[in-house]
């Protein structure tokens, strides 16, 4: 029988204190097993007092011989290390530490040492990291079917867990070998709550049970308005912001178009269903804007999207908008010359206050777009012409210039000298810019016409 001297007992108590410090460094809860004498002996080495943690374990190493030196340790899993390589009677035990294990994983440590008198020790010790609590399964969003829905268990692991699935409202749930859960037995449009429970298998390294839930519904055969669009993306330019977005789910409806609204101010733009980008012009440089999108359909409008990122327009140089006749009669033809646009891009021209699309022109290699535009009949008073496109810097650019439409007096043809953007009217998006004749604001609400060459 092995015995232990008083001095050696003091050494073991100190060794257990050292064990606690080592496992604290491992950053985990520990389980300590204490024995009155070494728990295992083989070929001269003794192992005792194991301490298990979440990522490994430690234990004491001594010898039945007076001295063991040149000690080495090698683990088949994880990494083994020793607090020393030589032990003599009366000294604290050497602490062997194994780290890098997963929950419940075992490791066998192989030892070699030189013993007093020239002998050699060769033996091994096996233990395991602590088991971890079962982890709740991760579930995908529900995909509707005619009589229920399906959900994927994205971290499905049948080697670790047993799975039990159930559904409310009379639904029947099953799970296949790939982790696909199928709920059936629901009426069209009926919803149910799916529960997926996992129970850890013996030897898996985990213990206990955990569960997750997911709401789902069967397909509703009645078409609904489009789903809420995702938050759009906004890119600021000069007095303008380009807004783009993704098409939402149609939900059985036919999407007919989109409306984008700026905040603050309420300036808007509209597009056809096939267009998912527009430029809102006439914005105030230095003001931060966000934008929301609404999808329209034959079944009504969607809810407004979440707000876009914030975008703040900033003025640039090397731009201008000119008109050859600052004062004209209703229905007259004017020449609008817009400078500062990306060569080859399309520049759209509008007339405000009541928005009228005048046409588009392609910017030449010099960045100038020229439009010969016929003004609409019946428009009298002070108005604003606006050019919207992509500037030389690749960012959206909006420019305004004042246009006075006056009724003919005695057959006069109107006219005057050409005017450039230096006489441009300011635009307050959604605000009240007092117009001399109509007294109406310059709120930009225009269905944008796409033309060849317009950057997307």
From TrEMBL:
The chain crosses the membrane at residues 427-446. Residues 225-315 form the Fibronectin type-III domain. Residues 205-215 have a biased composition (Polar residues). One of its GO terms (molecular function) is hydrolase activity, acting on glycosyl bonds. The keyword Ribosomal protein does not apply. Keywords: Carbohydrate metabolism, Glycosidase, Hydrolase, Membrane, Polysaccharide degradation, Repeat, Transmembrane, Transmembrane helix. InterPro entries: FN3_dom, FN3_sf, Ig-like_fold, Striated_Muscle_Regulatory. SMART domains: FN3 (SM00060). This is Fibronectin type-III domain-containing protein. It comes from Pilimelia terevasa.
């Amino acid at each position: 029988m092995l015995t232990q001297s008083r001095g050696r007992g003091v050494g073991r108590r100190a060794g257990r204190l050292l064990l606690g410090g080592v496992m604290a460094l491992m950053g985990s809860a520990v389980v300590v097993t204490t024995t009155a004498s070494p728990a295992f002996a083989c070929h001269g080495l003794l192992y005792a007092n194991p301490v298990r943690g979440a990522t490994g374990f430690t234990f004491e190493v001594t010898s039945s011989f007076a001295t063991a030196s040149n000690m080495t340790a090698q683990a088949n899993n994880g990494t083994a290390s020793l607090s020393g390589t030589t032990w003599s009677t009366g000294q604290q035990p050497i602490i062997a530490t194994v780290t890098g294990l997963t929950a419940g994983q075992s490791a066998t440590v192989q030892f070699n040492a030189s013993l007093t008198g020239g002998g050699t020790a060769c033996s091994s010790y096996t233990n395991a990291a602590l088991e971890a609590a079962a982890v709740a399964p991760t579930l995908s969003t529900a995909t509707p079917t005619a009589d229920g829905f399906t959900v994927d268990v994205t971290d499905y692991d049948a080697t670790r867990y047993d799975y039990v699935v159930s559904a409310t409202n009379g639904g029947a749930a099953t799970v296949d070998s790939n982790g696909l859960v199928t709920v059936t037995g629901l009426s069209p449009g009926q919803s149910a709550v799916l529960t997926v429970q996992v129970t850890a298998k013996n030897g898996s390294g985990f213990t206990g049970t955990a569960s997750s839930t997911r709401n789902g519904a069967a397909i509703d055969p009645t078409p609904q308005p489009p789903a809420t669009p995702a938050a759009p993306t906004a890119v600021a330019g000069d007095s303008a912001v380009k807004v783009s977005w993704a098409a939402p789910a149609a939900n059985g409806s036919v999407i007919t178009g989109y409306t984008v609204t700026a905040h603050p101010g309420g300036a808007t733009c509209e597009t056809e269903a096939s267009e998912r980008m527009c430029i809102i012009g006439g914005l105030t440089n230095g003001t931060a804007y966000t934008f929301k999108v609404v999808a329209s359909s034959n079944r009504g409008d969607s809810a407004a999207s979440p707000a876009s990122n914030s975008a703040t327009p900033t003025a640039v140089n090397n731009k201008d908008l000119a008109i050859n006749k600052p004062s004209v009669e209703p229905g007259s033809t004017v020449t609008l010359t817009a400078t500062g646009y990306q060569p080859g891009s399309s520049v759209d021209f509008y007339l405000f206050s009541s928005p009228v699309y005048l046409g588009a022109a392609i910017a030449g290699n010099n960045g100038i777009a020229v439009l010969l535009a016929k003004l609409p009949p019946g428009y009298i008073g002070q108005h604003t012409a606006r050019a919207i496109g992509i500037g030389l810097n690749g960012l959206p650019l909006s420019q305004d210039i004042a246009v006075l439409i006056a009724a003919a007096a005695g057959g006069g043809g109107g006219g005057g000298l050409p005017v450039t953007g230096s006489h441009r009217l300011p635009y307050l998006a959604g605000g009240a810019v007092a117009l001399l004749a109509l007294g109406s604001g310059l709120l930009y609400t225009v269905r944008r016409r796409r033309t060849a060459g317009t950057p997307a």
